[in-house]
Fold this protein.
Amino acid sequence: MQLKEIEELYLDEVQGVKNVLYDLDAGGLPKLKHLSVQNNPYIWCIVDSVEWLPCDAFPLLESLFLRNLINLEKICHGELTATFFSNLRMIKVRNCDKLRDFLSISVFRGLPKLQNFELIKCKNMEEIFTIERESEKIDFHQLRFLILKFLPRLTSFYHEVKSHSAVQITHKELTTDKLSKEVISVADFDAPMPFFSGKVMFPNLEALELCAINCEKIWPCQPPVLPSFQNFTSLIVRGCDKLKHLFPSFVARSFVQLQHLEISNCRVLEDIVTQEDETEFTKFVFPQVTFLKLWDLPELRTFYHGRHTSEWPLLKRLELSGCDKVNIFTSESFNFQEINEALLNIPVQEALFLVEKVVTNLEELKLSGKEITMIFQGQFPDHLFHNLKMLEIMNDRSENFPLGILETFRCLEKLEVRSSSYRGIFPNGDAVRHAPMLECIKSLKLWKLPDLKHIWEQESESDSILQNLEILEVWWCDDLINLVPSSVSFQNLTILELWCCRRLKSLLAPSTAKSLVRLEKISVEGCEMMTEIIASEVDVGEHEIIFRKLKFLSLENLECLVSFCSGNSTFTFPSLEDLFVIECPMMKIFSTGVLETPMLNKVRQNQEVDEGFWQGDLNATIKWLSKEKNVQNFEEGCDHPFIYHVE
């Protein structure tokens, strides 16, 4: 097979190939720029220099992607020339379970242009490369992005072969360094090795993601001769279950460009910054961080064990949940006694942040119920959260939504509530009392609230509390029996989405529907008991309802839906262009009343791009689609023989 002129090569489930270069073209691929190999159980190496004379086989190769190669044992077998991969900029490897190491250090040295290195789900990977001489160092000068995820046996970025003199310890006793006069214990040799050390340099690294690796320590306690972290803009650490401390103070101080910091699911992490000395007071400043996430850290007790402050002057989004052993905020204005009383008797030094140093420019805040309770009980000055626009609350086991928290967030525009036990959101008395704060809210999203019975109570006194609401999304609220009372109006609503609210029988009352003068999109899906979108009312005269700006309407997986409305109301959709009716088997007519859809010329039955169907008007089209579906079901049934049991 001659492939010398090819620039891009994708090998997917190619039979009989065990050694990519040798089996395809041992002479090399001099013009190849992109190589992707996946889903092959036969390949055991990409390049085998033992089988043929080494050459610069990939002089122009820029990207190498390897995926789902279950028997791949080596990238390179044998020695390669230093320029073999000299132009390589991107390496991505995923699901190659027999790989134990990646490349030799000599090959890594021959990657002067490598910018992106990604290694994911290689369960036997133990090291990236091996350093065989103690004085040996490697500089990944151009590397910008490093991602290492789901590598359960990986304890270090490299493996260092120790000399005999370095490992020979014959006496279990204390020794003394004659120059420093410091006592050194043999136990120091048993200290966990850092994942990175001064022998590997990343002077231009911008983003680092470590997820589910087997390291106990990421950085060494002493700073390297040359800095490696000053260009970091993103650091993500997830699921590292042996990690007790994230980084030493010298690393924290070097994060002058850091913008995104995320630490989650580290089950034994006790602090963020390690205390190396007994300094009387330490100040940490993260001048560029805009996003901070601390998530599911059950043993976290403090940011830094010594007396300290941390400042986050540009922080825009803060996410905190599952940090149950630490207080989130304290205030410069609290004395020790007030903190003990207001913040659940946790000592002042154990709070993660001084609220004044964190929330000055905060715009988005995501908290669990515990953290919300702490803020609510903490009685912080209202002006501190004056820039907050979005609040998301999750995992709250309370029965009622803590509406009083909105007094702290007076300029809130987006409210999201997820995975909580609330039975109601806006109870009558509380909603009226907090009406001024609710008037600012433009977006309300309710997700996974299995106990929610109502958002507003019936006959509510708070019918006009969300007059500026523009977006309403309600997902997976199984017990919800009424979206809003008939007295509620939404003059500014533009988007209405409802998913998997199984007990709802209708979406809106006609009186509420009349108020939707700005509505542009309706999407309803997976509501098993819904029979109509606009409820038909007994002993009420005909309504004329105009959805003046509605352009998009999607009705999907509504197995009991009979029609959009079974009453005799008149419906006008002057702007409707996109209508999806998908898996609504009971729907045989759109509406029994007068119906006008001047811009509509098709009804679609899937979300993919298709031509749709049209039979002159909307009701006729729905009838025709229903008949076609019945015919299709009958024909499919005829394809299967009936079995009769004769007794």
User: Anything to note?
Assistant: The two ends are 67 Å apart (CA to CA). The CA atoms of residues 67 and 480 lie 44 Å apart. Confidence is low (pLDDT under 50) at residues 164-189, 335-349, 640-647.
